[in-house]
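re: the backbone from monday

yeah here it is again, tokenized this time
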């Protein structure tokens, strides 16, 4: 996949997420006490959060077509779609939406990964069709 946007730099808190993305794996925080799953940015629950392997698919909740670059590095790629995907485990993940076909709420989405030459690998959503 071609480069998209500015390079992503991981830090200590996000390194496990982006290391998994580099292996084409989606991981999410999961509470060791209650078993709850969370989106990547969540850091607290009733027990320790541990990165756990997620199924890597979900359904499309909503999307938007971006016509104005939020950063100069996106300018040559306009327009593109951004979406919220409800993952099989429950959390919502914001991703760029790729693939043929017209999006519709409830469409199945597979999480795939972009591996830019610079910066961290990251998840994208691929429409699987109605
Ligand atoms: Zn918990």
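seq for it, each position gets an aa:
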């Amino acid at each position: 996949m071609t480069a998209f946007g500015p390079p992503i730099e991981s830090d200590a808190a996000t390194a496990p997420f982006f290391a998994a993305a580099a292996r084409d794996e989606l991981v999410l925080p999961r509470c060791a006490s209650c078993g709850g799953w969370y989106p990547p940015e969540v850091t607290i629950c009733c027990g320790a959060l541990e990165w756990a392997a997620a199924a890597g698919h979900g359904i499309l909740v909503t999307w938007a077509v971006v016509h104005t670059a939020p950063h100069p590095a996106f300018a040559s790629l306009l327009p593109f779609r951004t979406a919220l995907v409800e993952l099989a485990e429950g959390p919502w993940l914001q991703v760029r939406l790729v693939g043929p076909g017209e999006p519709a709420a409830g469409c199945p989405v597979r999480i795939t990964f972009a591996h830019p030459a610079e910066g961290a690998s990251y998840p994208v959503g691929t429409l699987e069709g109605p």
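The chain has one domain: 15-127. The chain is about 5% helix and 35% strand.
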